[in-house]
Amino acid sequence: MPVDPDAAIEITAFDWVPPFAAGLVRDLRVRWALEEAGLAYGERLLDATRRRDADELREQPFGQVPSFTHGEVRMFESGAIVLHIAEGSEALMPPDPPGRARAVTWVFAALNSVEPPVAALSEIDLFHAGEPWALARRPGAEADVCERLQQLSSHLGRRDHLEDRFTAGDLMMTTVLRILRHTDLLERFPNLVRYQARCEARPAFVAALQAQLAALSTRRPAATA
């Protein structure tokens, strides 16, 4: 659904990021969850290059995006927001307690078991490539990622999703796997490649990605001499 400036829900997002980050900023997770849940939302775009003022830091203490506002509900942290949305949507959360518990478990697994080594490798590659300490650390960082991917691949096997249907856990895991797009590591695990493609083919993901990229096209940094 198109972004609706009159919607009751509002999220924050950036109006520009470097090209390597487009499609990875974490408001994508919230946009995707809202699309899956069929909830309209508005967006308030922030300048990623400036420091946050006091009001903005009260809203998001770490100066990041996204934040989420719906009436008296005010939240930050993409995982928490996705779980909040999922609680009210069977598209993201199974109705039975065991299924709900497993979906929540996979959200935390994506954030706590898979994303940290993925993010560590990405930081080396995208911000410190060529530095002596990074050259020394990268083989170990890559091995850490591959270990997690192997474990994830072994669990997934031939299933379409992490459990018996798409849930918020798949949403979160897919957004973590996307961080590796600057590498070929995922290609070592064909079932994970198929899994990511399957999740990204969902209409809600396509709509969310288009919305984020549209927001990111609204500003460009001033040209340098």
Give the topology, please.
Layout: E1 9-14, H1 27-37, E2 42-46, H2 54-59, E3 67-70, E4 73-76, H3 78-87, H4 97-127, H5 132-156, H6 168-177, H7 190-200, H8 203-216
Parallel strand pairs: 1-2
Antiparallel strand pairs: 1-3, 3-4
Characteristics:
alpha+beta; single chain; four-stranded mixed sheet; 225 residues; 52% helix; Glutathione S-transferase Yfyf (Class Pi), Chain A, domain 2; Glutaredoxin; 4 strands; 2 domains; 8 helices; 8% strand
Overview of this structure, please?
With 225 residues, this protein is of the alpha+beta class. It has 2 domains: 9-91 and 205-216, Glutaredoxin (3-Layer(aba) Sandwich), CATH 3.40.30.10; 97-202, Glutathione S-transferase Yfyf (Class Pi), Chain A, domain 2 (Up-down Bundle), CATH 1.20.1050.10. Helix content is 52%, strand content 8%. The protein has 8 helices and 4 strands, in the order βαβαββαααααα. It has helices at 27-37, 54-59, 78-87, 97-127, 132-156, 168-177, 190-200, 203-216, and strands at 9-14, 42-46, 67-70, 73-76. It has a 4-stranded mixed beta sheet with strand order 2-1-3-4, with helices on one face. α1 (27-37) runs parallel beside α3, α4 (97-127) packs antiparallel against α5 and α6 (168-177) packs across α7 (190-200).
Alpha-beta content class: alpha+beta
Number of domains: 2
Estimate the global geometry from the Cα principal axes.
globular
Radius of gyration: 18 Å
In summary, what is this structure?
The chain has 225 residues and is of the alpha+beta class. 52% of the residues lie in helices and 8% in strands.
